[in-house]
């Protein structure tokens, strides 16, 4: 494991352990609304603070893009920027639903190099390093070998914060469902993507995600031999947040099912 990955893992575990402990006194947490159906708690903020502290202790001049703290620092000549979601699945967390994760990625000169997703409830650590593969603890990850949508298990997320893409999403949901898939909405996009990398989900699609939801999961899927693109099959997913992933065959089948329902105004 590279020193950069070691720091990412240390930070993810520290945040996850903090979230687990804090989850025992949920009723005491202060919660605010950032927007419709979009909550943030003290736990999200403190978890991010701890992650940034660990990263900056090791790499004081690295830039940060965190969900709660926004952009911090300049991307200097080293080109390093950490992309952090300290608690992916806040709605689950605040309802004591045991399905959430910590997501930390490192991008160097615009290219993802490290991706870590940590599920503290199951103590499962998903780690990807560019060119070195993806692992769940000591096990090497491969995407599933399922070849079609019929019989596939597909993860997704509903557009519950912004209703902007609701019609496009509903139509695409119908198409995927009619293709014979079992669809799961678990509530943490980062963990969904890690599950695609692990072959637990055959594929995933969601509209309107943010860079911190997907950065680590994207590298996990790529390093597990899968394909992850924007909704039109291109590479704009970190900009648009419209994401389709899976093994080569399922990714293509998902694209074929979803694309006709998106409408020309939906960004890639
Ligand atoms: C959310 C989760 C959810 C997805 C939402 C995200 P948050 O992140 O990833 O699965 O459907 O679009 O915003 O707010 O819990 O960090
Ligand atoms: Ca998130
Ligand atoms: Ca979050």
TrEMBL record:
Q: Record's InterPro entries? A: IMPase, Inositol_monoP_metal-BS, Inositol_monophosphatase-like, Inositol_monophosphatase_CS, Inositol_monophosphatase_SuhB
- Catalytic activity annotated for this protein? a myo-inositol phosphate + H2O = myo-inositol + phosphate
What are its cofactors? Answer: Mg(2+)
Its top-level enzyme class, in one word, is hydrolase
Any GO BP: phosphatidylinositol phosphate biosynthetic process
Similarity annotation: Belongs to the inositol monophosphatase superfamily.
Name of the protein in question: Inositol-1-monophosphatase
User: Which species is this UniProt entry from?
Assistant: Immundisolibacter cernigliae
């Amino acid at each position: 494991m590279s020193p950069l990955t070691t720091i990412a893992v240390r930070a993810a575990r520290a945040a996850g352990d903090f979230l687990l402990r804090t989850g025992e006194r949920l009723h005491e947490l202060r919660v605010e609304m950032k927007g419709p159906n979009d909550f943030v708690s003290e736990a999200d903020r403190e978890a991010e603070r701890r992650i940034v502290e660990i990263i900056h202790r090791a790499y004081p001049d690295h830039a940060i893009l965190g969900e709660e703290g926004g952009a911090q620092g300049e991307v200097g000549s080293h080109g390093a920027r950490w992309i952090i979601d300290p608690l992916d699945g806040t709605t689950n967390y605040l309802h004591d639903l045991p399905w959430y994760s910590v997501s930390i990625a490192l991008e160097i000169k615009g290219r993802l190099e490290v991706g870590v997703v940590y599920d503290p409830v199951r103590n499962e650590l998903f780690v990807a390093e560019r060119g070195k593969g993806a692992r769940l603890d000591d096990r090497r990850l491969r995407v599933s070998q399922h070849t079609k949508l019929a019989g596939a298990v597909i993860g997704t997320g509903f557009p519950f914060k912004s209703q902007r893409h609701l019609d496009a999403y509903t139509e695409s949901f119908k198409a995927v469902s009619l293709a014979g898939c079992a669809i799961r909405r678990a509530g943490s996009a980062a963990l969904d993507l890690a599950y695609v990398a692990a072959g637990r989900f055959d594929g995933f699609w969601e509209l309107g995600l943010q860079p911190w939801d997907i950065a680590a999961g994207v590298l996990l899927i790529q390093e597990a031999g899968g394909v992850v693109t924007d909704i039109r099959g291109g590479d704009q997913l970190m900009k648009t947040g419209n994401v389709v992933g899976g093994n080569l065959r399922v990714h293509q089948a998902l694209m074929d099912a979803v694309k006709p329902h998106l409408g020309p105004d939906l960004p890639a």
